[in-house]
Specification:
Elements lengths: L2 E5 L11 E4 L4 E3 L1 H7 L5 E3 L6 E3 L5 H11 L3 E5 L17
Antiparallel strand pairs: 1-2, 1-6, 2-3, 4-5
Amino acid sequence: MAFRVDSRDNSNNGDGDRWLSWDGQDWTADPVTTDTLHMPGLLFPLTPTGPLQRGYGPGESQLLAAALWAIPAAVATGQVPDYPPLPQLSAGAVF
């Protein structure tokens, strides 16, 4: 499955174009996105209120979620995978 995530807002405070491309085997991205995804201990929310995802692997759906979080005003195109499944909570629990 190949997909690409691009920023619809290329102003990005001087960051230039923000993007990530997955070819089904490996990903490439602009330097800012690459640095963001390689941050030690990367932790980001899967939804605005959680849960948190650690890192961007092992699957392409986790990479998609990380790219959507890291790239401002992100839009995904191509063969976009399903969003990672959210863990099930016990009755009455909230994120």
